[in-house]
From TrEMBL:
This is S4 domain protein. Keywords: RNA-binding. InterPro entries: S4_RNA-bd_sf. GO terms for molecular function: RNA binding. It holds the Pfam family S4_2. CDD domains: S4. It comes from the Bacteria.
């Protein structure tokens, strides 16, 4: 499991940014395509919005990897 941190000053991170921060995609364009193709799940549900707000405790799944987001 990969763990990423939201900056203390932020309430959330956007899904596309979280994928990049976790090293699962190389660019925002890559994130856009894998999300649009329905390959990314947030808390077990397929997510199609790149701008989806991801909060502390959320879990992202993509390409066999799991990412836990914490503050």
């Amino acid at each position: 499991m990969i763990e990423i941190q939201i900056r203390e000053t932020d309430e959330f991170i956007k899904l596309g940014q979280a994928l990049k921060k976790a090293g699962l995609v190389e660019s925002g364009v890559d994130a856009k395509f894998v999300i649009q193709d329905g390959l990314v799940k947030v808390n077990g549900e397929t997510e199609l919005q790149r701008g989806k707000k991801i909060h502390d405790g959320d879990v992202i799944s993509y390409n066999g990897e799991t990412v836990k987001v914490s503050k």
